[in-house]
Backbone:
């Protein structure tokens, strides 16, 4: 199975990774893992002021801060994951990547918000779920 892991370095990502590594059916040898980190774009004026090279280096550095610990954690559990770094609106980019990459499953962490916290997902999870055409496993 081809599995996309949406990671952001939060406590919810850590819960999702813990869940993943404790469920043998997800960690099996036949699975192919890709971890995606999505960075919010810099405001256009800021990007213009610093230049494309500096902005791209910033995005790469910020993504590496998220994906490096994830890759290390997964390796300790015998999982080799490909790493993707993208820039844009996280929910939309995650769903687009899951759909276009022909993934079999998207796994992501989330938490509730507001008075209906147990019923409402975070905005990134909600957007990804709404736009994703592949099954989504949300770990809370």
Residues:
């Amino acid at each position: 199975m081809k599995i996309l892991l949406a990671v952001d370095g939060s406590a919810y990502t850590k819960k999702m990774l813990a869940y993943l590594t404790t469920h043998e059916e997800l960690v099996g040898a036949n699975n192919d893992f890709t971890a995606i980190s999505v960075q919010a774009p810099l405001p256009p004026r800021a990007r213009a002021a610093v230049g494309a090279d500096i902005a791209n280096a910033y995005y790469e550095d910020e993504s590496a801060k998220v994906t490096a610990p994830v890759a290390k954690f997964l390796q300790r559990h015998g999982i080799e994951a490909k790493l993707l770094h993208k820039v844009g609106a996280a929910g939309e980019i995650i769903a687009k990547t899951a759909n276009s990459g022909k993934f079999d499953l998207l796994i992501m962490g989330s938490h509730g918000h507001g008075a209906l916290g147990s019923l409402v997902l975070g905005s990134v999870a909600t957007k990804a779920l709404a736009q994703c055409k592949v099954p989504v496993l949300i770990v809370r």
